[in-house]
Amino acid sequence: MAKEKAKKRKTSTKYRLYKISGDKIERKNKSCPKCGAGVFLAQHKDRLYCGACQYMEKTSK
Question: How much is the pLDDT for 30?
Fold first, then answer.
């Protein structure tokens, strides 16, 4: 039998949410005030949104 080809996987994108400077790790996105520090708010064109609890903040331009 022939060997199966290895599947190509996407690289993880969770590291783009953090900024590493020296020995510190900083979060780029704001965290949800209802859910706590473990849940990020998604940045849309005109709002910030939490997918876990449906919390929303409007952003002014």
Answer: 92
pTM, entire model:
0.67
Q: Is residue 61 part of a domain?
A: yes
Strand partners, 49: 42, 56
- How far apart, in whole angstroms, are the C-alpha atoms of residue 53 and residue 5? 41
Does 40 fall in a domain? yes
Structural domain including 55 reads 30-61
How many secondary structure helices (H) and strands (E) does the chain include? 0, 7
Measured CA to CA, the distance from residue 48 to residue 32 in angstroms comes to: 9
The single residue listed with the structure tokens 């709002």 is 47
